[in-house]
Automatic annotation (TrEMBL):
The keyword Repressor does not apply. This is Transcription initiation protein spt3. The gene is SPT3. The keyword Transcription regulation applies. Keywords: Activator, Nucleus, Transcription, Transcription regulation. GO terms for biological process: regulation of transcription by RNA polymerase II; transcription by RNA polymerase II. Belongs to the SPT3 family. InterPro entries: Histone-fold (IPR009072), TFIID_TAF13 (IPR003195).
Length: 376
């Protein structure tokens, strides 16, 4: 046991100069066969169960592994290279910095030094489906917070009732109303222009929710198709990877990584950090899906146009053979290569394309066209 502990300390010192906490030894070493099997996922698990702050180098490794997990959940079944995950990290960080810069400018226009949650949501207002998913995320977060507060108050009431036998617990209607999922209102919506608020209906769904539900159902359908043939161990890994986050138990390093204190002087609240965590997951997922689509188009074009000379001669001869095209329900091909950096760059280029109606006719002028970064 002493030798294993000494080896663990030596391994930990190679990763970071921070002394290893006791949680490292008890939560990781006891579940590993050897020190060689330690990965960045184990480091992230130790961060979740301990109170120490990882060094920038350790946080870099944890972040790369987090991106790899998010890519796996988004449909990447291969093992992406470090270069691919590093490019995704740079793109996501660039997006977050642009978000904070725009939010800071928006806050300064209204005379405030701190950014709010509405400033962040305003930056993605054109993507109605994403706004709807974010509002649902914030609504359920508020429900969990209210339930926790009501449980704490209920425990105090039970203690008070135990001291006084005549004290009987009151109705729970008020607590039930607080625990109901409330809709997050936005100041630029038409409903906020009126003094009287229209009561909500349980069976009412707007177009934004329908579009959000459609995208969510599509992703759930893809996830169901992937997990249907998984073993128990594979599904456990899948479930763990779905919990990957840039911000969970990484608040301090994430603030430094995002540029708080440099890009903006505003001190982020817990809600802002949670929103950024939600948006970063969406960015990685959207970027991975587009990169997979670009790779699929490249593979299809290569299969149709880049065939070998023998197949080309056969097509020109009397016995013409049509190439087999994979159908919708065909199994995936063996030995599929993972997404490469060029696919990620192509996906980013597609997200930065602007429609012609948003471009000004500046061909005969010397005015340089300013193209701000698109937030996806």
């Amino acid at each position: 046991m002493a030798d294993a502990k000494d080896k663990m300390y030596k391994y930990r010192q190679e990763i970071s100069q921070i002394p290893i906490p006791r949680a490292w030894f008890h939560t990781v070493i006891m579940t590993k066969d050897s020190l060689a099997t330690l990965t960045a996922s184990d480091m992230a698990a130790c961060v979740a169960y301990s109170d120490f702050t990882p060094s920038p180098e350790s946080f870099k490794r944890i972040l790369i592994d987090t991106i790899r997990q998010m890519m796996y959940v988004s449909g990447e079944t291969g093992e992406p290279s470090v270069e691919t995950t590093s490019i995704i990290e740079d793109i996501v960080r660039q997006q977050v910095i642009e978000l904070l810069r725009n939010c800071t400018e928006l806050a300064s226009r209204r005379g405030s030094k701190s950014i709010s949650t509405n400033d962040l949501i305003f930056q993605i207002r054109h993507d109605q489906a994403k706004v709807s998913r974010l509002r649902t995320f914030l609504s359920w977060k508020d429900v969990r917070k209210n339930i926790k507060d009501s449980d704490d108050k209920g425990a105090d009431a039970d203690l008070a009732a135990g001291d006084d036998p005549g004290n009987v617990a009151g109705p729970v209607d008020e607590a039930a109303k607080k625990n109901k999922k409330a809709k997050v209102g936005l100041p630029w919506e038409p409903a906020s222009f009126f003094n009287v608020e229209v009561p909500e209906r349980d069976d009412e769904e707007d177009d934004e929710e329908e579009e959000s539900n459609y995208i969510t159902l599509q992703r759930l359908r893809k996830a169901d198709d992937r997990t249907r043939a998984m073993t128990r161990e594979e599904y456990v890994t899948w479930s763990e990877y779905r919990q990957a986050s840039f911000t969970w138990r990484k608040g301090k390093r994430f603030r430094e990584w995002a540029g708080f204190g440099i890009v903006t002087d505003s001190k982020p609240s817990d809600d802002i950090v949670d929103i950024l965590g939600f948006l970063t997951f969406e960015m990685v997922q959207t970027l991975t899906e587009m990169a997979l689509k670009a790779k699929e188009q490249e593979d299809t074009a290569r299969a149709l146009n880049g065939g070998d000379a023998a197949s080309l001669q056969q097509q020109q001869g009397s016995t013409k053979k049509r190439k087999h095209q994979h159908g919708l329900f065909d199994p995936p091909s063996e030995g599929r290569t993972p997404v490469e950096p060029r696919h990620v760059q192509e996906a980013f280029r597609r997200f930065q394309q602007r429609p012609k109606k948003t471009r000004a006719m500046l061909n005969l002028t010397r005015i340089a066209e300013k193209t701000p970064l698109n937030i996806f």
